[in-house]
């Protein structure tokens, strides 16, 4: 009897999950703040680079180890996204008085 109740609960849960699923935004983005960093120093620039990398990983997501196409897509997304974000970081570092957030957006096709 307990097994039937457990199976019924599992079946009900698996049926309701697709209704709860939401689609991900087409191009997710994260703002990388850098007001607290002194971008005129090497330490500040490295801290910004680490923050950008964490944002890139967040917006590009991950793929299962068994999904080779997905792994390649994530790797390409990270490469392209980091390149675009690094260009913005270079501008911010060159103009260290600017206090705007860097917008990191996925460049998925």
Short description:
The protein is built from three helices and two strands, in the order αβααβ. The protein is mainly α and 109 residues long. Strands 1-2 form a two-stranded antiparallel ribbon.
Write the layout of secondary structure elements.
Blueprint: H1 2-20, E1 29-32, H2 42-60, H3 68-94, E2 102-105
Antiparallel strand pairs: 1-2
The topology string of helices and strands comes to: HEHHE
Kindly report the average pLDDT value. 79
Give the low-confidence spans: 1-22
Helical fraction: 55-70%
General description of the model:
The protein is mainly alpha-helical. The protein has three helices and two strands. A two-stranded antiparallel sheet has the order 1-2. Mean pLDDT is about 80; it is low at about 1-20.
Quick tags:
109 residues; mainly alpha; 3 helices; 60% helix; elongated; disordered N terminus
